[in-house]
Design brief:
It contains 17 helices and 20 strands. By secondary structure, the protein is an alpha/beta fold. A hairpin with a 5-residue loop joins strand 12 and strand 13. Helix 4 runs parallel beside helix 6, helix 9 runs antiparallel to helix 13 and helix 15 packs across helix 17. The protein has two domains: about 180 residues, Leucine Aminopeptidase, subunit E, domain 1, CATH 3.40.220.10; about 300 residues, Zn peptidases (Aminopeptidase, 3-Layer(aba) Sandwich). The strands form four sheets. An eight-stranded mixed β-sheet has the order 8-9-11-10-14-18-15-16, with helices on both faces. Strands 1, 2, 3, 4, 5, 6 and 7 form a seven-stranded mixed β-sheet that branches.
């Protein structure tokens, strides 16, 4: 997608369609919508025809509502689209991002170019407005179609966006916003591609090769280490390898590390001492193991490496973000399959930090592999640890399918994540690390069991299990089981992988 600037008003820009905005009006006995400046300017050229058409169509400017108008003369564009932003009193930046995602999907195969002015009446800075618009368009336009036939791909491609800009400084800010949006969207869509790819392709070796290629593109700042089964054994990763032993697919433990420029790090003072670890659950397919899943529960289990996809996506653009502290990305990659070598209920494995884990259910495998990833992060000197995992169905029962469960042992880290998530439009809700619930993970024969002795509070007990392996470091766990994979299309995504979490991490790094 290409982005251009024009000094001309919207009616003088050559584009397939013009976009104008309106807010919903909640006052009684009044026009149902509040036109923004872009609407008013275009409507004036049309002698109020746009307003009259909107009134006849009972357009109310609810969030995502659109109205198509076809001007007869004086316009280079053949289509004007009025886009509703919802109630001004409830408007957030993510509303703009989402309505542009809806628009991108609606315009797919209909137009090749759009022109618009930023809705400055929202009080958001022009840089952020441009970022929201472009993220919405790119993310909303996404589709995973590599296995579609060529005939099904034919159609118009939305490829050019023209911004009507009047001030020099605004143009510079908008350009910066566009570039940031392109970075964020590129990373998000990479995560989506990885999650949507079939498990036979997106194997641990595939993920490891991608990590190596990412590091190869920036040898100055990024290094990559890949540990095979024998090397992981020497490190004491008995938990990870216990899950991996059922599969003929070789497991891979992936370590990516970004280091800032020495001069940049030194100038930032205390920040140079920080090392952030981002840990992603990397189960490339989850059959449930011996505790096999039901068919309906298994069909989307290629998505169980969504946490790993976040790590790889973040590192694919980290050199553009340029954080002034060290960042490590860790993935214990393996499928969880069934064979004569599978873990059995009652087996005991030992994690890298020396703690033993009784396996009571082989379908609670992700937390077992992550025990070694978290232990490894501690040994690497991480000062803060954030993990992303499609860990429990219980979090979806608590929060639904679009909200991530956040658990943290550090208030500042939790608040940093919350703020980053709000700006990213990725919903999180903090849940408690209830210390009294730790007893529920107690094992009679090992240090800890991989499932609790109750059916209740499953998301909480899973988080408490992970906390056993962070050695008191500042740590946050994000259970992305709900929003990582969409069962139906949304404002910004089609059915499948969403890339949820990527933009939150990029905001943290920024």
């Amino acid at each position: 997608m290409e982005f251009e600037f024009s000094r001309n008003p919207l009616d003088k820009i050559s584009a397939d369609a013009i976009i104008v905005f309106a807010f919903e009006n909640t006052k009684e006995n009044a026009q149902k919508f509040i036109p923004l400046d872009s609407f008013l300017a275009v409507d004036k050229k049309l002698n109020s025809a746009l307003t009259k058409t909107a009134e006849i169509a009972k357009f109310s400017a609810k969030r995502g509502e659109t109205l198509n108008f076809y001007p007869q003369e004086n316009f280079l564009a053949k289509l004007i689209v009025v886009v509703g932003l919802g109630k001004k009193s409830e408007f957030t930046g993510d509303d703009l991002r989402r309505v542009m995602g809806i628009l991108a999907r609606d315009m797919k195969k209909k137009v090749t170019s759009l022109a618009l002015s930023l809705p400055s009446e929202t009080s958001l800075a022009s840089l952020f407005l441009a970022q929201l618009v472009v993220e919405g368009l790119i993310l909303g336009k996404y589709e995973f179609n590599k296995y579609k036939t060529k005939e099904e791909k034919i159609g118009k491609e939305l490829s050019t966006i023209i911004f009507s800009i009047t001030k020099n400084q605004e143009a510079k800010n908008v350009e910066q916003g566009i570039e940031k949006a392109k970075i964020y969207s590129q990373a998000t869509n990479l995560a989506r591609d990885l999650v949507n790819e079939q498990a036979a392709i997106a194997t641990p070796t595939y993920l490891a090769d991608l990590a190596l290629s990412i590091a190869q593109k920036d040898k100055k700042h990024i290094v990559c280490k890949i540990y095979n089964k024998e090397q992981a054994e020497k490190l004491g990763m008995g938990a990870f390898l216990g899950v991996a032993r059922a599969s003929d697919t070789p497991p891979k433990f992936i370590h990516l590390e970004y280091s800032p420029d020495k001069t940049h790090s030194a100038s930032s003072g205390q920040a140079k001492k920080e090392k952030l670890a981002i840990v992603g659950k990397g189960i490339t397919f989850d059959s449930g193991g011996i505790n096999v899943k039901h068919g309906d529960s298994m069909q989307d289990m290629k998505m169980d490496m969504s946490g790993a996809a976040i790590v790889l996506a973040v590192f694919s653009v980290i050199s553009s973000i340029k954080p002034d502290f060290s960042v490590i990305g860790l993935i214990a990659a393996t499928p969880n399959l069934i064979s004569g070598k599978s873990l059995l209920p009652g087996d005991v494995v030992k994690a890298m930090n020396g703690k033993t884990i009784e396996i009571l259910n082989t379908d609670a495998e992700g937390r077992v592999t992550m025990a070694d990833s978290l232990s490894y992060a501690v040994k690497q000197g991480a000062t803060r640890i954030i993990d992303f995992a499609t860990l429990t169905g219980a979090v979806m029962i608590a929060l639904g399918t679009e909200i991530t469960g956040l658990f943290a042992n550090n208030r500042q880290l939790a608040e940093d994540i919350r703020k980053a998530a709000v700006e990213a439009g990725e919903k999180v809700w903090e849940l408690p690390l209830e210390k009294e619930y730790k007893e529920l993970n107690k094992s009679e024969i090992a240090d800890v069991a991989n499932i609790p002795n109750t059916r209740y509070g499953g998301a909480l007990t899973a988080a408490l299990f992970l906390e056993e392996f962070v050695d008191g470091k500042a740590w946050a766990h994000l259970d992305i089981a709900g929003p990582a994979f969409a069962s139906k299309s949304g404002d910004l995504w089609p059915k499948g992988g969403t890339g949820h979490g990527v933009r939150t991490v990029l905001n943290l790094l920024s």
